[in-house]
Design a protein that fits this description.
0% strand; mainly alpha; globular; 15 helices
Length: 397
């Protein structure tokens, strides 16, 4: 391996590890952290390319924030970079949840003060990301209107299919409005470097559908707990639209009725997963640990995220070519505006209702936003401040 390539892999791993240890607040907040790290700080891609990647991952089943991280790693360092980006972002919470599974005793209290602060900081992080993305992606009245309508549509139809429908309609409107003009702002003509080719992408699609079809057959033929875990978690990871929270009822149906654990133990793990950084899909580590100790946890995590990895690797090589087409560039202009609206909708519901309960919470959120927006404090520092303030509010108010 060349020294330059080793250095690039090191960059990807260190950046993703930092995000994996500090990205609290759920998928919408993760996208804000990613933008700060990959777009603003490291400049591995620009806002328009980042929004294109976010829009693509919204179309795909699986955890959108993890897929965006995989996509950034793929763009930066090929398949190896994608794997390192996923590993760094995912493993910190996987390890924590494996420890939770080892120590949990049914009624462990997770509603502590520092968790209150971590919920509050998500509001500031998302608002900070909204302002930055909005300046670049909604610079005129039509795109502002499109963002507002997209946000309203997602709030009125709060389902995964509603979100996909909004993105499709936004692309159609963008095509109608911008098909006869350049999208402008200097980002559209930049080519996203793609270290893998279309053959690798096609192979990833074959593997995705092949595993989806073959794993249930193998499960019937080989009555083994690890095969059962692989089949269950791969299937759930392949068909979940709408983010991590949607995975809760699907996983519950896979493990509780079969007697692997009781409902209380399952919900305890879900509470723990909300309290750690990184993607909510790492709940699979907790469940797998209870089902078959460390091997079960590792198999569950890999099976849960493998569909997302294959989908991103399979789609991005074609996406980088398609996005240069005039008609698609026009459509992406609309989709990019819609992404801003969708992020705003996530802030309105569920982030604010589940995070802000008093005027003190508003004050902490305002302070965190001020630190991010005006003091340029690193996100991990703001998370630490929010955790301390949340604990103080919990103790004294």
């Amino acid at each position: 391996m060349e020294k330059k390539e080793r250095g690039r892999y090191g960059e990807i791993l260190s950046a993703s590890l930092k995000l994996g240890m500090t990205s609290f607040g759920g998928p919408a907040a993760h996208l804000g952290y990613f933008r700060d790290e990959y777009v603003k700080k490291r400049q591995w891609l620009d806002d328009r390319a980042y929004a294109d990647l976010v829009a693509l991952c919204q179309f795909l089943p699986g955890p959108a924030s993890s897929q965006v991280g995989i996509g950034v790693g793929l763009i930066r360092g090929g398949i190896g970079g994608a794997m390192l980006s996923w590993f760094g972002f995912t493993m910190p919470s996987v390890i924590i949840l494996m420890l939770f599974a080892y120590l949990v005793a049914g009624d462990v209290p997770f509603d502590t003060g520092w968790i209150r602060g971590l919920k509050i900081v998500a509001v500031a992080i998302i608002l900070h990301a909204l302002i930055g993305m909005g300046k670049k992606l909604t610079p005129d009245a039509p795109r502002i209107a499109l963002a507002v309508l997209a946000g309203a549509g997602v709030l009125l139809v709060p389902t995964a299919w509603g979100q996909i429908g909004v993105i499709v309609l936004a692309g159609l409107v963008g095509y109608i409005l911008y098909r006869n003009r350049q999208a402008g702002n200097g980002g559209d003509d930049a080519t996203i470097p793609m270290p893998i080719g279309k053959k690798a992408g096609a192979l990833a699609w074959v593997l995705f559908f092949g595993l989806l079809a073959l794993l249930p057959v193998v499960r019937q033929a080989a009555d083994h707990i690890l095969v059962s875990i692989t089949d269950s978690f791969y299937r759930v990871g392949s068909i979940v639209f709408g983010g991590g929270h949607v995975v809760l009822p699907m996983l519950e149906r896979e493990v509780v009725p079969q007697g692997y654990m009781d409902a209380e133990t399952f919900i305890a793990g879900y509470g723990a997963a909300q309290a750690v950084p990184g993607p909510l899909f790492t709940l699979s580590a907790y469940i797998g640990m209870i089902m078959d100790n460390v091997p079960g946890a590792l198999v569950a995590v890999v099976a849960m995220f493998l569909p997302s990895f294959l989908l991103v690797v399979g789609t991005l090589p074609f996406w980088s070519v398609l996005r240069k087409k005039t008609w698609l560039r026009a459509a992406l202009t609309g989709v990019n505006a819609a992404v801003v609206g969708i992020l705003a909708a996530a802030l309105i519901n569920p982030v604010i209702p589940s995070s802000i309960f008093s005027v003190w919470d508003v004050a902490v959120a305002a302070l965190c936003f001020w630190l991010l927006q005006f003091r340029k404090t690193p996100p991990w520092g703001v998370v630490a401040v929010a955790g301390v303030l949340g604990a103080l509010l919990h103790a004294f108010l």
